[in-house]
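Notes, p. 3: input format for complexes.
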Amino acid sequence: MILDIFKSHRYKSKTFIDVVVLNAFLEKFCPDKSLEIGVLYGETLVFIDHHSRQTVGVDIKFPKRLKDNKFKNVRLIHAKDKSKEKNIYDFIHIDGDHSYDSCLEDLMYAQSRSSAKTIILIDDYFNPDFVGVQDATKRFLEHSKFKVGLIGHNQIFLEHIENKNFVNNLLKNALQNNLKHFCKYDYNTAKYQDYSGQLNKQSKLRILEHCL
Ligand SMILES: C[S@@+](CC[C@H](N)C(=O)[O-])C[C@H]1O[C@@H](n2cnc3c(N)ncnc32)[C@H](O)[C@@H]1O
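Output follows (212 residues plus S-adenosylmethionine):
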């Protein structure tokens, strides 16, 4: 099932390795409630939905193509209505407007809907076209109970200070054993890098078949 999802996606806005790591994380984490800010075509929402009991997706517009995905339990809401949502989420993916102000607002909103167990994932952290994401995250971290848990190819996981090393511990076996074909992983610094640059999508899927 999960391999079919990988096969059917184009990863236009996502790198393969980040989706693989996202999937590996969610598979172990099994969130009860998840939130995604910035849904677009649902490339990541489909993985979040697959591993979560309930998922809320927030965006300012919902393209027709989004309906091509077969979601299990997703509720889509417009960004202007998100303050009405009072859920506390286990997993929050921030991938909306990548400007400094919006990203900071999304992080503050995420914090207001979080518990000490919540994991926040921020996309496009290392994308030079969106420096606002990194600047906003650094600003947020100065005054937050969330700290960096795992640093990825182009994404970064935040965890609560009471939950230190959670993401790293959860993923270390997967990254060291199963996913070693895709990423170079340093457990001490909690960093992974894309390792699969030369592989085409077919080869990646073939390797993934043995990993999942
Ligand atoms: C990079 S795309 C998201 C990609 C998506 N996660 C995927 O995997 O396909 C960014 C999305 O953020 C949305 N967006 C822009 N401003 C937003 C806001 N204020 N709140 C929520 N979403 C917003 C855009 O409409 C766009 O769909």
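The longest helix spans residues 16-29.
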